[in-house]
Design brief:
globular, Rossmann fold, two-stranded antiparallel ribbon, 12 helices, seven-stranded parallel beta sheet, about 350 residues, alpha/beta
């Protein structure tokens, strides 16, 4: 099966599992999604609304973003999601947001961090404290990143949640700062929190697989410096992360969210070459470490992803060869120095 158009893609990205529908049936109260205008926010908001409707619950799903460009705000409204325009760093606008017992914190900054160190610390480390004060009576699900672990030897099978963080660069350090601020307020204000360390969520318009497939398709050389990655379909990542509403705790529950495999960049590129009928060129040598996470805990809690790497690669190859829409935002997954 191929995905041939945006409607099909949006449907599968926001399709809730039966387990998520059950979670939404048991969950009480509205959901507010802070940072709903990013790459993952729109599909997560749609998924939360679809799961709520299928559960037969009356609940507001509220998406908060600047919504400064494009038609996204209207699209979310047409899906039954309330929207609020807000600059979360503006204290007056933040305080004006409605209360909600369930908060999904997706706001953050990664790309451009090498040139905007002050802003990235404000977004990733200062803002979480403001969110905790505003929503001290809520449960909060937090998007974080596997980058906080730094480079993990492949022989370890990926970093686990209890490993000591060793962030490289200001983005990863500020992301660890985000976690520490949420942990502090969880402990002192007794806020139930779930922290999801994600890497890497992919779909057909964006992500590590798209980056590699585009290079293979255009005959560009593949950099093997970061020789291995984890990926997970964005729909599966959003489904699991929404289900962590049931696991928010004081102190925070920390969960790695990614696919079960450690994938070779070389092998992925070669397989795309076979699918696309293209010759593949490489440069560099694979390192013995990488930004790799072990996701056994999440799979024990939520099961394996519904979409396999085999299915993802087939969808991605077809999508790229069709010339279908992409977001045009490289992930820079090959970066080892932490500067994005």
């Amino acid at each position: 099966m191929s995905i041939t158009n945006m409607k099909e893609l949006e449907e599968i990205l926001s399709r809730p599992s039966e387990e998520l529908i059950n979670t939404m049936a048991a969950l009480e109260g509205d959901i507010i999604i802070l940072g709903a205008g990013g790459k993952m926010g729109p599909s997560l908001a749609r998924m939360a609304k679809r799961a709520t409707d299928k559960a037969g619950k009356q609940r507001r799903v509220i998406g908060v973003s600047r919504f400064s460009t494009g038609s996204l705000e209207a699209e979310l409204q047409s899906a039954g999601i309330e929207t609020i325009r807000c600059d979360l760093l503006d204290r007056r606008e933040l305080e004006a947001l409605p209360d909600a017992p369930n908060v999904i914190f997706m706001a953050g900054m990664k790309f451009g961090s090498a040139e905007s160190q002050a802003l990235i610390w404000a977004m990733n480390s200062y803002l979480p404290g403001e969110i905790c004060l505003k929503y001290s009576n809520s449960r909060i699900v937090v998007f974080s990143t596997g980058n906080i672990y730094g480079l993990t030897p492949l022989a370890y099978g990926g970093a686990i949640e209890t490993d000591e963080p060793s962030p490289i660069g200001e983005y990863a350090a500020s992301a660890l700062g985000r976690e520490r601020i949420f942990e502090h307020f969880s402990r002192t204000l007794h806020i139930p929190v779930a922290i999801n360390r994600l890497n890497y969520a992919v779909e057909l318009r964006y992500g590590v697989l798209v980056d590699i497939a585009e290079k293979v398709n255009s005959g560009e050389t593949i950099d093997l410096s970061m020789g291995n990655v984890n990926v997970i379909f964005q729909g599966d990542a959003n489904d699991m992360i929404l289900r962590t509403l049931n696991h928010a705790a004081c102190p925070p529950m920390v969960i790695n969210i990614t696919g079960p495999e450690i994938l070779s960049i070389r092998r992925i590129a070669e397989q795309f070459g076979q699918l696309m009928g293209k010759e593949v060129k490489f440069t560099g040598i694979e390192a013995a470490d990488g930004i790799i996470s072990n996701s056994q805990l999440s799979h024990r809690l939520f099961g394996y992803p519904r979409v396999s790497i085999h299915q993802l690669m087939g969808w991605t190859a077809d999508w790229i060869m069709q010339g279908s829409a992409r977001l045009g935002k490289p992930t820079h997954f090959e970066t080892r120095h932490g500067k994005y």
